[in-house]
Design a protein that fits this description.
By secondary structure, the protein is mostly helical. It has two helices and no strands. Helix 1 packs antiparallel against helix 2.
Length: 91
């Protein structure tokens, strides 16, 4: 009788440990899915900003050049920071 109770207790403990590991796995899975969704949205916004930007109509080409370069640089910095954030989160 004691051996049967011991085996039942061990199997119950193993089941609970497996259930706990499954909950932990689901938590990490959901967190990674959230990070992936946020990264995709931010990357999409960055690319859209980079593609759809229209410099203001102006006769001074130097001013327009600085504005276009500034937007390009800002977009590249955003993309780099988003990729860095994703890599740090996943690894």
């Amino acid at each position: 009788m004691l051996a049967a109770d011991k085996l039942q207790l061990q199997s119950t403990l193993k089941q609970q440990a497996t259930a706990l590991k499954e909950k932990e796995f689901n938590l990490h899975h959901n967190n990674f899915m959230t990070v992936g969704t946020q990264a995709a949205v931010l990357a999409g916004l960055d690319v859209t900003m980079f593609i759809e930007f229209q410099p203001p109509p102006n006769d001074e080409w130097v001013c327009v050049l600085f504005v276009v370069f500034g937007v390009w640089l800002y977009t590249c910095i955003l993309q780099t920071s988003h990729l860095t954030h994703i890599i740090c989160t996943l690894f």
